[in-house]
Amino acid sequence: MAIRTPERTRRRTPLSRERVLDAAIALADEGGFESLTMRKLAKELGVEAMSLYNHVANKDDLLDGMVDAVIGEIDPPVPGAGWKTAIRQRVLSARRVLLRHPWASRVIETRTNRTPVVLGYMDSMTGMFLAGGFSADLGHKLGTSSFTMGMLDEGAGNYDALALGDREEELGTNISAGAGLDDAGVNLSALKEKLDPSLALYADVIERPTFDPKEIDRVRKTWIAGIAQEKAEPNALALRLLPPLMYGAGHPYAIPLSGTGTEESIASLTRDDLLAFYKQWLRPDNATLIVVGDTTLAELVPLLEKHFADWKAPAEPLPVIEIKPAALPAKPRVFLVNQPGALQATILAGQVVRSSVGLDAWNFYLADDVIGGQFSARLNMNLREDKHWAYGAYSFAQQSIGQEPWIAFAPVQIDKTAESVVEMHREIADFVSGKAPITEAELAKVKANQVRSLPGGYETGGAVMGQISGMITYQRPDDYVQRKQQIINGVSLDAARAAAGDIHADSLTWIVVGDLSKIETGIRALNLGEVQVIDDNGKPVPVK
User: Which of 120, 147, 170 is the last residue of a domain?
Assistant: First the structure.
């Protein structure tokens, strides 16, 4: 809802760029950015339309300014926080900001001229990618992969954490490390004229991390605080709880989706645990080096030989992660998590679907775009645009080598929680059963949106590196980038409809986070499936 002020107050307030952007954001929040026009904006501000151009040059400048303002709402990194903690905090903050402004992600994708504010988020040139990731936690303590990768740049070679940071600053370089569901990576961004000493530092981080016990204890404290922050944020909490419920105990993906582990597992991690994981997984026979930038093999290979020639694989064979198919539940399940005093409820419904490996994954991605993957998708049009019960209702499939987790989610006003569950279930059931199948027009629209967004995936070095790493992880052909548009456009209506059938409405696992004193009775009355109350660790709460 836009905040409106009396006409007299508007006239007294001088028009400024900040005021124009604030009003534009409020209008976009209310009706979506498609409905935003300069004439409508002028009417909202109580000014002549031409006066707006004293503060925004044109519509593109307006949208760029709106993007900058929204990104400016994301909490800045906490001074002194480790890389992994800082990234996690920013991701959680960004998620909250995008829930406030559901239109923003699509506008960001359309901007072809990146402003300095946006460019601050895009920085990478060289990446060492390793198989494993969160799924390699199996057999280790939860969170070991992420924590180990996060410790690589907290001291290496002859540098402690502070000295390493100082050396990066001297060289104008940045080294970071982290893990995903199926892989991990160590990234280097460096100036060409400083590539040799930057690669020397990069090699220290990869080959000679110190895992200083003092630094481990320091990072551990902020890490555990980050887990507590995840539990305090309803969407993040639900994403911690849902994968173990979908995949089942013992599955490599039955972990919090953030990969951060639990307070207990992180508290118990020792230096020996990190060294064991490092020796097992961070090895040259498990690594692929990707380089993007102004260089050639003739320039690069001698430098790599200079700094990495001594990096040898251990005698022990590389472990193999066995990712077995997870069985679907025989009937729907509903899990409730109490957040006393919450003003809204967060609803998630999830199920495992097909793997990202194989080009037929696009059949499902386009089907997902129709049900919840885009602003104009069915879930959002229903719960946000029609009912006005939610800031946004979406769905996504997390890419993975094994079965992907498909998740639909909606933060809704708390007095409409049960009604929102009913609408989400109906939309999904009708979509997958054939009662309301994908139409030709819907498929054409989501194809066009995907194809038009393709150039944005190659605008920066980091974006190109991300595309290449995805090709490696998910075993895509070398000409995948050239064929991607053809693959998307080649998905037939029958194929998309069949892929929608990967979702089984009667096998969904539901999680609802909110004030149970206000929502539990209504949800139980739906008789959607067995209802169980769990705590923020996923453990059953005894019935009082």
Answer: 120
Look at residue 411 and tell me if it is in a domain. Answer: yes
- Residue 81 contacts by C-beta under 8 Å, 6 or more apart in sequence? 89, 222
DSSP helix/strand/coil, 410: strand
List pLDDT tens digits, range 260-286.
Answer: 999 999 999 999 999 999 999 999 999
Mean pLDDT, range 35-39, rounded to an integer: 79
The answer on pLDDT for 94 being more than 90 is no
Residue 325 belongs to a domain: no
Residue 286 lies in a domain: yes
The confidence score (pLDDT) of residue 4 equals 29
Distance between CA atoms of 355 and 321, rounded to whole angstroms? 15
Cβ-contact 164, 153 below 8 angstroms:
yes
- Same structural domain, 141 and 86: no
Q: What is the pLDDT of residue 295?
A: 86
pTM confidence score? 0.75
152 with 289, same domain?
Answer: yes
Domain count, the chain: 3
Q: What share of the chain is helix, strand, coil (3-state, %, to 5)?
A: 55, 15, 35
Q: Which domain holds residue 30?
A: 1-120
Residues 297 and 430 in one domain: no
3 state DSSP class of 316: coil
Distance CA(497)–CA(238), nearest Å, equals 28
Which among 200, 208, 148, 149 has a CA at the least distance from the CA of 173?
200
Q: Assess contact for 144 and 269: CB atoms under 8 A.
A: yes
- Which residues are CB-contacts of 305 (< 8 A; sequence separation ≥ 6)? none
Residue 521 lies in a domain: yes
Q: What is the mean predicted confidence (pLDDT) over 352-367?
A: 94
State pLDDT tens for residues 296-343: 889 999 999 999 999 999 999 988 888 999 999 999 999 999 999 999
